[in-house]
Specification:
The protein has about 140 residues and is mostly helical. The protein has a single domain (about 5-65, about 75-135), classed as Ferritin (Up-down Bundle). Helices cover about 80% and strands about 0% of the residues. It is built from four helices and no strands.
């Protein structure tokens, strides 16, 4: 099996960011009940941040000569606010794992711009994970 290139990993990141931006925005629309009242504005805020990440990564990939994907990974909304939060925790953990690999590969390839960009995005994703886990613990 061939080793995944940095460009391929950036496209994986874009697909993931598109996925969660749609997923979180639809959760913002569909969350109900008391828990939904609390979660909705957080879902919306994080969805917007995720779309900005997708744009930033796409611009970097384009600069590196790649073509950004327009296809998200699988979007799963969840039937309850608790299920939504569980899905979001898993999505953020997956992103954190991927972004750590991108940072390591970018450092190895001496692409310090991509490395710094993903260090910032990783920090955001860790914050999102903390938000979702905190809300889930409160349920």
């Amino acid at each position: 099996m061939a080793k995944e290139t940095l460009r391929e990993m950036l496209n994986d990141a874009i697909a993931r960011e598109i996925q969660v931006s749609v997923q979180y925005m639809w959760q913002h629309v569909q969350a109900v009940g008391i828990a939904g009242e609390v979660a909705r504005p957080i879902f919306k805020q994080i969805a917007i941040t995720e779309m900005k990440h997708a744009e930033e990564i796409a611009e970097r990939l384009n600069m590196l000569g790649g073509i950004p994907t327009t296809k998200p990974t699988t979007i799963t909304i969840g039937e309850t606010t608790k299920k939504m939060l569980s899905l979001n925790v898993a999505a953020e953990k997956d992103a954190i794992q991927l972004y750590r690999k991108i940072i390591a590969l970018a450092a190895k390839e001496e692409d310090y711009v991509t490395k710094r960009m993903f260090e910032k995005i990783l920090s955001d994703e860790e914050g999102h994970l903390n938000d979702f886990e905190g809300m889930l613990e409160g349920m």
